[in-house]
Write the structure tokens for this entry.
Amino acid sequence: MPNFSFSFSLPVVIVLLAAALAATIAWFFYRTTIPPVPPRTKALLITLRTLSLFALLVLLAEPLVRLTTTTAKKPVLAILFDDSKSMTINDAGGDRKEIYRRLFADMNFTSLVPNGEVRFYAFGSSLRPLASGVFDSLALDKDATNISAALRGVAEERERLNLAALVLVTDGNYNLGQNPLYDAERIGLPIFPIGIGDTTEQKDVLITKVLTNELVYAETEVPVDVTVKSAGYRNETVDVSLHHEGREVSRARITLQEGTREYSVRLSYIPLGEGVKRYTVRISSLPGELTTANNQRVILARVLKSKLHILLLAGVPSPDLSIVKYTLREDKNLTVSSLTLKTPSTFYERDNPQTLLDSADCLVLIGFPLSTTSETIVEMVRSAVARRTVPIFFIDGQNVDERKLEALSTVLPFTIVTPSVNEHIVFAEPVPAQRNHPIMATGSERSAEAWKRLPPIFKTQAVVRAKPEAVVLATARVATVVTNDPLILLRNINRQKSLAVVGYGIWRWRLMAQGNRETEHLMATFLTNGIRWLTTRDDARPVKVTPVKPAFAQGEQIEFVGEVYDASANPIDNAMLRVTARLHEREFETVLRPLGNGRYDGSLEGLGEGDYTFTASATHEGQQLGEDRGRFSVGEVNLEYQETRMNIQLLRQMAARSGGAFVMPREIVKLPSLLAERGSFAPREVQTTEERELWNWPYVLGLVVALLGVEWFMRKSHGML
């Protein structure tokens, strides 16, 4: 039976006084009427006026009515069925699909909780409810398994459904999401896993890993490192091959050893032309393999032009010039030329530098320009940079002339506030927020420490200030004192990139860092990373959408990141950014969600094997902002066939830590008693309270209007108006 209660924002005494006041006013108003009316009519008029006035006065006290209802919710058992492709494997434990079918036939799931309810769910990469616990309701075709997401999805229903326990029917292998053991502990419900599959290593040969460069150069050999895993074979040979557009480009052969082993194989290819290229790694199949669906992988490579032309422009011959030239020439993807001033307007290498300037992909200034450098040469450099937006890598020198350097100030990331030729020794101190920047990264987790251990270099005592849009990667440290003076900084604006080292003597980073494993290769890495960052062109498209990687495995979420800008390059936060992926005649669509500052992300699920193209379109307030296009690949390899053994250890741990019990299909008859022992299958009383703010309830106002209307009608019918 529902319980009612009233409350007011004012004391009850005031409400009672309001009732008395309303009655007094009504009596005073109708104590004498013209014309006189019968006493019964007068009493009714007084009552109507009292009620209407009282209702208006009470509304000022903000009356609140509460309706409390108590109901008993039955306990619920949730049964989660693994609906992924791994449930169709035929291993040493038998045909999993048939085991699944027998499980449904042998167990009446709806009778597991006599005094409660049973809810059925299926899961792959996500969770979905099932109308009934019948085998035919399962498709067993999902490309990935996310047990963690399934547990979280059911746990969200805990309060609404009075969940008491979970039964999890699976092989225990997850290939998406986090370790489900954490969720098993967190949700606070006993879990009863039913393990499907065999625990022994299956007879199989598969590709477990492919490592190669996503960004490569045309006509340059690219290594592809493949990891092959085998189990159950001895002395058989398999071929590992790399294919492009139906043509084999590389092959290696391995002999399999007894037991479960992994083998590393190196293949290679030489890309031709520019653009995104698709390659397939394959291993030959053997008789008796569990599955051949894991015998190949697809990789995509973005091929750039074969060689970049780097032009070094130096004010004078110097150790910095020699070391930078020598280091850059070690990179086979670079063609390095140099121009060193001999006189104010001529160079040691050649008399006419215009050809080199016009062909340079990146310009490295080393101690340039000097006070003696002719204005013609400075203007030639400035014009070439402005005309072709050539990126600049600036390395300071003691005798650089700040007035001549002013001609290039529009592209440099710093300004010189107070010039000086006095010098001191400084160390590089990486800025903590930028220690993982691609230019500063060394490939080691201790990149920042390696930078700090570099020998010191020289720096003038000039006051240098970073421009507002510049990013400072490292500051100058004098002995143990870290200053705010920028030492390494960059700038990227209006498609013009620049990188600067506001110091000199960087030859010390190469020659004096030898013998230390952490620092001996740091300068070469820094120069290579810097050149790559400078020469990787940013486009000015208003809409940019890219997949997080060029190739995905079946079952993986296809994740996209995007950016949206207006015509003035200002980020737009609330655009409708729609991505449509296509494979032949099929289309898949998603809308990316805004993250702020013009950034977006989103994903697609359930895409099968193939090479996809996609179109991204952004609109804002009905206006079309722009489009972007691209491609990605979903490989033949399926996540479900990478690990085929039942993960019995995980299932046992989930049961133990959650307070449940692990059961094999042959022990299914034990499940009802285990549930009765460890599950809390008791009804739960649930109180629901509904509150109604009467002062905001339109029916109360309607009641007042009705009372006043009836009063007006009676007055008029008795001639009182």
About this structure: The two ends are 48 Å apart (CA to CA). The chain has a mean pLDDT of 85. The CA atoms of residues 589 and 634 lie 16 Å apart.
